[in-house]
């Protein structure tokens, strides 16, 4: 096989309430990924930034995102790109959230701002 398959370490198949971080992916992918799924409201990181872009693929639910000086609701079916060095955070809505967060770097580099 010429591709690489990576299984989640928690082994859950129901797709609920999990988060997993992946760095230094095989095959010279040159990205790192956070997979996140929750049924809880108010989940999300505090304000931070990265020296590279972060792309959010929102698969289920919604979250209130703060990006720079803007605040808005990102919902299922949207793709959000946060440019490098832009402060951002999010908080999940009452029905939860599922997303794929793609960091344009092989390892996570985060500067926490709050």
What is the CATH top level name? Answer: Mainly Beta
Q: Mean pLDDT, as a whole number?
A: 88
Could you say how many structural domains there are in total? 1
Task: Tell me the distance between the termini.
Answer: 44 Å
Name the assembly state: single chain
Going by helix content, strand content and strand pairing, the class is: mainly beta
The major sheet is characterized as:
6 strands, antiparallel
Characterise the protein shown here.
- This protein is mainly beta.
- Helices cover 0% and strands 49% of the residues.
- Strands 1, 2, 4, 5, 6 and 7 form a six-stranded antiparallel β-sheet that branches. Strands 3-8 form a two-stranded antiparallel ribbon.
- β4 and β5 form a beta hairpin.
- It starts with 17 loop residues before the first strand and ends with a strand.
